[in-house]
Amino acid sequence: MxxxxxxxxxxxxxxxxxxxxxxxxxxxxxxxxWDNSYPDRDFVTGDIARGSLYCLWGKDGTLxxxxxxxxxxxxxxxxxxxxxxVTSPFELCRIxxxxxxxxxxxxxxxxxxxxxxxxxxGAGSIRLLVSRDNPPALALYRxxxxxxxxTCQLYGIxxxxxxxxx
Length: 166
Fold this sequence. Notes:
The protein has a single domain (about 5-125), classed as Aminopeptidase. About 30% of the residues lie in helices and about 30% in strands. It has helices at about 15-25, 40-50, 75, 105-120, 135-145, and strands at about 5-10, 55-60, 65-70, 90-95, 125-130, 145-155, 155-165. It is globular. The model has no long low-confidence stretch (mean pLDDT about 95).
């Protein structure tokens, strides 16, 4: 996907409704562990307030993707599977692509951008939870060098814990 077809930028308060609509649409894709109650407005506004939400905008002004990448949630940070000697790990979560533009390399473009941005913000690794039932996400993270470092069950879902040292 040529980068001249989109831009990636930190989300601002005015983007919250568009991100929430994107998340609702992405929740309907096969393999998604989301529903109409997650992620909700509180997650979106919290991610924006922390400066961890990023938006991928099509040149036509349509929000094509979004992801949160920043300080880990306490429940995620407390999992015993992570590399113990990492300074400033970041958590990647709530990455979604508008269903109409999935399969065009946008998730990879957004992930690549985040992998370059996170070290500039001081991250030593990126950690994430991925559902075993989401083959496209599993393939994406494998392609970008994430290693499975454990498993867990949280929020009623069996997850693979994945990490990439930066």
